[in-house]
Amino acid sequence: MTDAATIASLGLKAVTLTHVRYRRGDRLGHFLAWVSLIPVFISLGGFVSHFLFRRELQGMFFALGVLISQFLNELIKTSVQQARPLHTCAALETCDSHGWPSAHSQYMFFFASYFTFLTFKGVGLATRSQKLVVACVPWPLALLTMYSRVYLGYHTVAQVFAGAALGLVFGGSCPQEAEDCSGLKKANQVDHWCLLRNL
Q1: Torsions phi, psi of 94, nearest 5?
Q2: 10 Å Cβ neighbour count for 177?
Q3: What pTM, to 2 d.p., does this model score?
Q4: How far apart are CA 178 and CA 60, in angstroms?
Q5: What is the pLDDT of residues 97-145, one digit of tens each?
Q6: Angle at which helices 138-151 and 103-122 pack, to 10 degrees?
Q7: Are 105 and 165 within 8 A, CB to CB?
Q8: How far apart are CA 157 and CA 102, in angstroms?
Q9: 135 and which of 11, 29, 116, 170 could share a cystine (Cβ 3.0–4.6 Å)?
Q10: pLDDT in tens, 37-73
Q11: Residues 6+ apart with CB under 8 A from 65
């Protein structure tokens, strides 16, 4: 029995957090495979380092919002159960998972909208033009991630647009909810609270 046949007979399934495939020799596909991993880099690099070095309440709400958004994505996927593109799911080993809405698109559009809110709320940038430049950074990455999921065959166009729309809705409402729930309208006072800094 071959290794592939043995694995198939055991009914094993891979953890797909960083399992992104592209066609051999496809340079654009290779680039877009890395683009598809941006949510992983943001989560592991951005949020973890932010917690370790800053421990700000707004950053914790941001990460909590991402987790809630991803939980809702899984809940919706389980309820709707729309298949991934049939012409690529076998090669990508994704036929047993659901595609609507795209979690990658939802994540990136949640991140981009929340990040834009925080930028204009004031994160140490003095001028409006500085804020505008910084606020524009995540949007091309969100669009590239959306495109990469269709190009690589993981999702249909409708699935990535649904994910983007949900990400915009959740990302647009979450910062305001965080402020309302925690009194973050006095964020500068909360951020410098000694007890919070020493957690």
Answers
A1: -120, 10
A2: 13
A3: 0.72
A4: 10
A5: 778 898 889 988 988 888 888 777 766 666 778 778 878 888 998 999 8
A6: 180
A7: no
A8: 10
A9: 116
A10: 777 777 666 666 666 666 666 677 777 888 888 888 8
A11: 110, 114, 170, 171, 174, 175, 178
